[in-house]
Amino acid sequence: MKSKLRIRREEKKVTLREVASILDVDTVTYFYYETGKRNVPNEIVDKLMKYFEINEKEKKEFFLPNNFSVCKTAV
């Protein structure tokens, strides 16, 4: 399944390398952000939101992991 960042990047018709360059990060680092293998730092989130025109309402959809869960602990 493609990530929302990848889909947005492909819609803009830009490469991983181009986005990485705009963010001033290595291409592999951006690839890890896009695939969820690395958490995206807040300053990069801000840059991505501006570049990809992601609004606050969409922010969680783009930057929260797809497979996280909340578990209860016994008190």
Overview of this structure, please?
It is a single chain. The protein is mainly alpha-helical. The chain is 57% helix and 0% strand. The protein contains five helices and no strands.
Topology:
Elements lengths: L3 H8 L4 H8 L3 H9 L6 H10 L4 H8 L12
Helix pairs in contact: 2-3
Major sheet: size, sense and barrel closure?
none
Percent helix, as a range, is 55-70%
Task: Give the N-to-C terminal Cα separation.
Answer: 38 Å
- What's the overall geometry? globular
Stretches with pLDDT under 50, minimum 5 residues: 67-71
**What is the SS-derived class?**
mainly alpha
Number-wise, the strands total 0
Q: What's the SSE pattern?
A: HHHHH
Number of helices: 5
Estimate the strand proportion.
under 5%
Radius of gyration: 14 Å
Which key terms come to mind for this protein?
75 residues, mainly alpha, globular
